[in-house]
Model the fold of this input.
Amino acid sequence: MNNIDTQPSAAPVIQALRSIGYNAQTAIADLVDNSIDAKAKNIYIEFEYSVGNGFIRIEDDGTGMTEKELQKAMTIGSKDPRTMRKKDELGRFGMGLKTASFSLGKRLSVLTKKDGIVSERCWDLDYVSDVDKWLLYKYIPDDVKVKMGDIDSDNGTIVFIDLLDRFSGTGTHKVLKKESYYAKVNRIQKYLEMVFHVMLEQGLIMKINNNMLHPWNPFLEGNSRVNEGEEQIIRVNKKFVKITPYVLPHPSTFNQTEYKNAGGIKGWREQQGFYIYRESRLVSFGDWFGMFPKDVPSELVRIKVEFTNTADDDWKIDVKKSTISVPDEIKEDLKSIAKYYRQISQEIMLYRTKTMKLGQRIKGTLNTWELATDDIKSAYVLNRTHPILTEVLKTVDDKLRKKLNVYLKLVELGSPSNLLKTDNMVKKEEQEIDDKSKHLIIEYAETLLSVGVELDIEKLAETISMMTGFEGIEIYTIKKILEREVINDGSSNS
Ligand SMILES: Nc1ncnc2c1ncn2[C@@H]1O[C@H](COP(=O)(O)OP(=O)(O)OP(=O)(O)O)[C@@H](O)[C@H]1O
Ligand SMILES: [Mg+2]
Done:
């Protein structure tokens, strides 16, 4: 015999498996992947705080498992990563259930029901370490079972993790305080709202401690002010990658809440970059992969890149589903697409950040409407240099161009805001407005300035006047308030 069967020893392998680099967010997301793979429509996650022994419980109404399936599922390496996975399937390595759970706590109990038949298993790492053998409990200890509860319908699964030494310091000398614990839970919620936003938008119900999760869409899809770039499909090793670029509107066009929300978990500047999706599940976000710096003028660009699980090898997806590596074959394509949209972002940012003279025409912005102001009148005019319009005008003959221009003039004249705010928008008398609105104006201006948007006072007042909630307040009034309360030198500021 030339070979020797060399079994890994249980105790040290367990310790190593606990440390493959999950954090609480990626671990929970990996467990949610399993519920989604099991076709769950409802996923309820519960985090129970207790200094002695809190727990994490994930219940789903997916297909559940037979006892045989569960036994296999609890095995470290339950499936060969090289086997072909179903379309849409998020699993790959046959590891996640175990590794993600062990990164949080020392005991994993799974209760599952398939067609009304209940099965259970439990890994207790203290026991595995003691006996130094991969001995899996057939039954969940009674005290745990009480906390786990039952599965109401005929199919579903409860994954229960306790002895949370890693997650909350249970049994160590660094037990998390209650506030920090729930702050952590809150961050997990935000993370899941981002990573699973597509599924949430498609109707998946997910709750954490009874709070409903709401999808966070990085591209603000559905917001008409977002510029969606041209979709491109590129082949990498015979597999398709879909790329859709988005350029968000200028920050000053958001109200405070919208602005904060659009910034996501890391804030506007950090969230720029590529968003890589594998089977509609976000695996990497806000990253230029070393191609570009994350500068403020480019912060409006977010580029969606979608690949399928058949391309896992090309993208080198990891067990945690949180890092990938961009295949060399498409690096150049991605770079040139990003470069183009970064320029658009820079233009939008620049237009708003430059000190503008009154009535100055703006070239090359993507805003369809602009406010043209002179000393007595102001009106909204169409941006005749909008890239799309320029493109269209190039392709039509003279006759059609003239007709189109007449039509656009009519659209301008008939613009609802031009009809409402007839002459004399530049009033010389300040309106009386209530304190709440006044306060909001000040707060909003301060937010804009604090994020480093450099606007002169006219532009600032104009921007605020266009916000919903400030209708009916004249620019002159807003300007006066700003002069008094926000900007003391009465001119531009930083
Ligand atoms: N909530 C669940 N409902 C039904 N089956 C599940 C559930 N969780 C896990 N399973 C089963 O257990 C198996 C093992 O899960 P595990 O997460 O360890 O590996 P995987 O999902 O196949 O791959 P990966 O390591 O990439 O996550 C799954 O393939 C699935 O068959
Ligand atoms: Mg899995």
Observations:
- The two ends are 78 Å apart (CA to CA).
- The chain has three domains: 10-212, 227-353, 369-485.
- The first strand starts at residue 42 and ends at 48.
